[in-house]
Design brief:
By secondary structure, this protein is mainly alpha-helical. The protein has 5 helices and no strands. The longest helix is centred in the N-terminal third of the chain and has 21 residues.
C-alpha cells in the first residue's frame, strides 16, 4: 500500500468516526440515534479489520470507493444502513436462456458498489 493510499484509508476511517459522533437519527428518538451510532461504528470496525491485509491496489481502490459511496448515501438519505436492491428472481435474462448459474452470476455483477461487502459481514 502506498503512503497516499494509506492516508486516504485512515482519512476515511477518521471521517466515519466523526460522522458517528455527530450522527442524529431522522426519527429524533435517542434510542434510535444510539443504535445507529453503534451500527456505524461496528460496521466500520468490522470492514476495516476484514480488509486490513489487502495488498492488491485494485481491491483497495474498490473498498475505498465502496466506503465513500456508503458515506455519501448515508448522509444524503439520513439512514446509516445500506439501501437494499430489489431484483426479481430469474429476472435477468441472458443471451442463451435463463440458467440458474448465469442468473446468480448476473445478480452478483449487478450489485451496486455500496453493497459489495454487506452480505459478507452481515
Amino acid at each position: 500500500m502506498t503512503t497516499a493510499t494509506r492516508q486516504e484509508v485512515l482519512g476515511l476511517y477518521r471521517r466515519i468516526f466523526r460522522l458517528a459522533r455527530k450522527w442524529q437519527a431522522s426519527s429524533g428518538q435517542m434510542e434510535d440515534t444510539i443504535k445507529e451510532k453503534e451500527y456505524i461504528l461496528n460496521e466500520a470496525r468490522t470492514l476495516f479489520q476484514k480488509n486490513k491485509n489487502l495488498t492488491d491496489a485494485d481491491l483497495i481502490k474498490q473498498c475505498i470507493d465502496e466506503c465513500t459511496a456508503r458515506i455519501e448515501i448515508g448522509l444524503h438519505y439520513q439512514i446509516p444502513y445500506p439501501r437494499p436492491i430489489h431484483l426479481p428472481p430469474m429476472g435477468l435474462t441472458t443471451l442463451r436462456g435463463r440458467g440458474l448459474r448465469s442468473q446468480e452470476k448476473l445478480r452478483k455483477l449487478s450489485k451496486p458498489i455500496y453493497l459489495k461487502s454487506h452480505d459478507e459481514v452481515s
